[in-house]
Amino acid sequence: MKQHYSVALLVETSSSYGRQILRGIQRFIHQNESQHWIAVIEERDLNSGIPNWIQDWAGDGIISRHASDEIRKEILELDIAFVDLGDRQESGLFAKVISDDAAIGRMAGEHLRERGLSHFAFCGFQNEAWSDRRGSGYQEYLRSIGIEKVHTHFVQWCDQDAKGRDVSEVSLTQWLQQLPKPIGIMTCNDVCGKHLIDCCYKAGISVPESVAVTGVDNDELLCDFCQAPLSSVIPNAEAIGFHSAELLAKMLADQSLRSSIETVTISPLGVVARRSSDMVAVEDEDLANALRYIRSHANQGMSVAQLVEHCGVSRSTIERKMRSVIGRTPQQEILRVRLRHACTLLAGSDLAIDVIASKCGYAHPEYLHVVFKRELGVTPGEYRYASRNN
């Protein structure tokens, strides 16, 4: 017989990130065979905090994204099962499940480096731990490939009045104007990315030709509202929700686990490339032309022969230039682009695998299985399951 528990979900409904966390929690509830949860949920934003009714609430557990150090101490006094999803401050009072922000930064760095850029920058939010971690991961990746200089700028995020926003915009615009060009900029999230692209547009700085931009969260509505639709790293927020619910269920079943203070980090899924980073900053025109063509046509089933015909130079020339600059043959680059797109669709959509195969340029779904087993050691279905549960 199932045990019944009342669980409060204090997660913002105002952002795509929060809603994806809630979807992951919902998926766990539907799969939970030993417990029945009555979920208490209400409309919230990230600054809502812990509601007053919690102090007198006769519930069993809480999953929360809204926890300052003071509120965490109040929760301790309630002696209730609690999983902390807050990432705005460092804290060691409770078990946490959060995005692997360092991995997000590395992924953004890899994406921008693939554009052939030599100059890089990071724009983050002041006094936000998750933003700092993403910036650190980004800079560590760039240092690992020999790029020491990364320009940085920080702006205020929440609770900013109109005057403060104007000051922030002036400062950001001045910084953008002083940067070497072309340059790749990682912004800590899509809100920051849109703000930066707006400043570029007002200042007459072309995106992506002079400034290539990548955000984080893949908030599709926000990304598409940008003058140049914003490329974005996809955190696995649904997996965060699933793992937090799984952890809370263990605490509800075994009270001794409530004192756990482990931190689980969830890896990002990939990058959705949009126009804000759709550029190739390599000096060789033949190579730049080839790379642009591959990124535009790889998922349409293109061949190396078609690439050579488009570029108007010999196959040996294209082979030599690609090997010397990016370390891959044209065929390897086509495969890499297709495989990355397939991984993104498997992790971030519910499309059938045969549909994904078609969208990635494979005439037969069976060949997608062959490529996945050869390159990643798993089937497409196994990759989808692992991406949503790890």
The largest sheet has its strands arranged as 7-6-8-9-10-12
What is the CATH topology assignment of the largest domain?
Rossmann fold
Tally the beta strands: 12
Specify the number of helices: 15
Uncertain runs are none
Q: What key attributes describe this structure?
A:
six-stranded mixed β-sheet; Peripla_BP_I; transcription; 3 domains; HTH_AraC-typ_CS; Arc Repressor Mutant, subunit A; four-stranded parallel β-sheet; 390 residues; Rossmann fold
What's a quick, concise take on this entry?
It is built from 15 helices and twelve strands. It has 390 residues and is α/β, with parallel strands linked by helices.
Q: Can you describe what's shown?
A:
Pfam families: HTH_18, PBP1_XylR, Peripla_BP_3. Residues 288-386 form the HTH araC/xylS-type domain. Keywords: DNA-binding, Transcription, Transcription regulation. This is Transcriptional regulator, AraC family. This protein has 15 helices and twelve strands. The protein has helices spanning 16-31, 69-78, 101-113, 129-144, 162-178, 190-203, 220-225, 237-253, 285-297, 304-311, 315-326, 330-348, 353-359, 365-375, 380-389, and strands at residues 3-10, 35-40, 61-64, 81-84, 96-99, 120-125, 150-155, 183-187, 211-216, 231-234, 263-266, 270-272. It starts with a strand and ends with a helix. The protein folds into three domains: 3-98 and 237-269, 3-Layer(aba) Sandwich (Rossmann fold); 101-236 and 271-277, Response regulator (Rossmann fold, 3-Layer(aba) Sandwich), CATH 3.40.50.2300; 285-389, Orthogonal Bundle (Arc Repressor Mutant, subunit A). The longest helix is centred in the last third of the chain and has 19 residues, at 330-348. With 390 residues, the chain is of the alpha/beta class.
